[in-house]
Please model this.
Amino acid sequence: MRQSTGPDTGPAEHVEAAELARLLHSGPFHLALRAALAARGLPLHRVQHRLASRGIKVGVTSLSYWQQGARRPQRTESLRAVRALEQILELPAGSLVRLLAPGNGAPSGAAGRPAARRYRSLVAAGASVEELLAGMEVPADGGLHTVGHHERVRIGPRGELLGRDSAHVVRAHRDGVDRYLAIHHGDPGCDPSRVRVSALENCRPGRVRWDRTTGVVVAELLFDARLRRGDTYVFGYGFEDGTGGLSGEYVRGFSYAGGQYVLQVRFDEAALPVRCRRFTRSAPDAPRGELSELTPNGLHRAVHLVEPGVRRGLLGIAWDWD
Model:
């Protein structure tokens, strides 16, 4: 299973502001830009519109590449856009441009070139997510912070990802929040047009968008109530897949520190792995770290991990078939 992420995970607002201040001071540029976008609650298509109103043409895909670290603004027009972004995102003048100076995380080799094929594939998926989100008219973080998330993943008799479902507890950090955007990223070979979305508890399905090239599905889940700032909400949802090839891991990415996360992976008795491990990654292109063996339970059919308070980065379970 490739990386699966949600746009909601985040700390309290004062922690978010402190993290933004730290990144504006130390960089790198792409993380500072991403944190600023999340803090202001602006989706990329709105940022693009505000830049266009100032006579600056930058595509949503380019903005996404900038915040993912796959491209760095270099040309005169791009730097003009960055200065405008400082105003749009209410940042100190020069705070983003300063992070683009030589020695502040510039990539080696050709300027702005993605470093590796595997990282580029993950960035392409991130760009497709931004394209799918464009036009849905929701803040970048959805206005929600995760308090707790219990995710159950099911692996089928061919070793394929059959589906996953989530029990989610969130807290609104602004008034008027009434929906959540769930993102599913299938394994290689996934046919997103055949992935089905289920609203299991206290929500109903809304719009669904998908991209065949990357296997990404974005589903809108509409709450049964409109939340006020500080309100908590419990809801459940799921994705039925079964369209991809052999699965070897399930990974979830966290943009910010947050609440408790529980991941359970259950295997079909016809396809049991020989080894399962918990792991972390600091970034999509980083090697697995903090490896630890997981002991199956339930007749050797299920493994799980519990993270009391998630940290920035990626967390997942990997398994070997032979």
In short: The first strand starts at residue 3 and ends at 5.
